[in-house]
Amino acid sequence: MSAPDYRALLSAALSFKRRYPLHTEGALRDRTIYFLFYNASLRTRSSFQTGLARLGGNAIVLDPHTGIYTPALPDAEIPYTTERVADVARVLSSYGDAIAIRMYGTPAGWVYGAAHRHLEAFAEWSQVPVINMECDRFHPCQALADVMTLREQLGGLTGRKLCISWAYSGSWHKPVAVPQSLLLAAVKTGMDVTLAYPPPFALDSRIMAAAAQFAGQTGARIRVTHDLRDGVTDAHAVYAKSWCSLNHLPQYSGEGVDEAGMHAAFERHRDWCVDADIMRLAAPNAGYLHCLPVDREQEVSDDVVESPASWVFQQAANRLHAQNAVMAHLLNPGSLT
């Protein structure tokens, strides 16, 4: 989306939230969305289904592992086990009004971009909208909830400073989708973004180039640092979470993750944890954000998550409202006004 269109969607989402639920009931009456979860989910699954039900629609959850023949691209088909994505997309779009998919990591063999290509194949063959509930490149619904929270907490976002930081976790199994989508969303709103991460954890260069292009349009600034304390200093909001190193993911299907290299990259940076001392470097009244689930005492200390500076549960609540706005935007745009 263009920066102006994205800001319009953000404003519509905040407005839709203010009217929810009494003045939004029926916005998606008799609409049906098919949900395919290749990965575990708490917030995404429950917020989408709750929101769709409250707006009058019907959620049908299809288990892509055992409930149906697993949708697959042509190079991954197995007789009587999979069904080509092109066929699944055309069938489902003849029944319902949208298809929502969550897929990253193991179901795509951890080949970076493979899950996103899966969603793109659905979009190519579907006659109805396809919603990305998180892939290996993007998590747009989370990002919309994030900037909703930032707008509610900070007011105008132009010129506000956001630190997006890598943080240590005992597990490397986290895609780069959240920081990449948040970076794009933040610069579209005019925020100045500092990316803080150890050198092995750089984001996709194509995403960085796209963010720089949007920043040129909005006047936002992007800065990169490899020092956590430098990144947090004077930030109005600190979004610190873990993500994997793209350097150690396989490039082709059938190759394995460089587990030893990935583990070593993580273990060298165990000190990348946001605690109360780190948060004191941020601007007065700065907030801490995380998409959840959070690895407590690894990514962030308990005292930060449970402090008044924590905005994480407001973020989680805003997933419902962000996704309601996305569904309405796609299926009944007149209900957003």
TrEMBL record:
<keyword id="KW-0808">Transferase</keyword>
<dbReference type="InterPro" id="IPR006130">
    <property type="entry name" value="Asp/Orn_carbamoylTrfase"/>
</dbReference>
<feature type="domain" description="Aspartate/ornithine carbamoyltransferase carbamoyl-P binding">
    <location>
        <begin position="2"/>
        <end position="152"/>
    </location>
</feature>
<dbReference type="InterPro" id="IPR006131">
    <property type="entry name" value="Asp_carbamoyltransf_Asp/Orn-bd"/>
</dbReference>
<protein>
    <recommendedName>
        <fullName>Ornithine carbamoyltransferase</fullName>
    </recommendedName>
</protein>
<feature type="domain" description="Aspartate/ornithine carbamoyltransferase Asp/Orn-binding">
    <location>
        <begin position="178"/>
        <end position="329"/>
    </location>
</feature>
<dbReference type="InterPro" id="IPR036901">
    <property type="entry name" value="Asp/Orn_carbamoylTrfase_sf"/>
</dbReference>
<comment type="similarity">
    <text>Belongs to the aspartate/ornithine carbamoyltransferase superfamily.</text>
</comment>
<dbReference type="Pfam" id="PF00185">
    <property type="entry name" value="OTCace"/>
</dbReference>
<dbReference type="Pfam" id="PF02729">
    <property type="entry name" value="OTCace_N"/>
</dbReference>
<comment type="function">
    <text>Reversibly catalyzes the transfer of the carbamoyl group from carbamoyl phosphate (CP) to the N(epsilon) atom of ornithine (ORN) to produce L-citrulline.</text>
</comment>
<dbReference type="InterPro" id="IPR006132">
    <property type="entry name" value="Asp/Orn_carbamoyltranf_P-bd"/>
</dbReference>
